[in-house]
Amino acid sequence: LVLAGGKVWHLFRHPEELRVLVRSWGAWAPVGIVLFQVIQIVVAPLPGNAMSFAAGYALGLWPTVVWLMVGVMLGATVDFLLIKLLGRRLLKYFLPPDRLAQLDALVLRRGTFYIFLLLLVPNPVGDWVYYLAGLTSLPLPVFLGLVFIGRLPSNLLECAVGASATHFGWREWAIV
Question: Least enclosed by CB within 10 Å: which of 2, 52, 148, 170?
Answer without folding.
Answer: 2
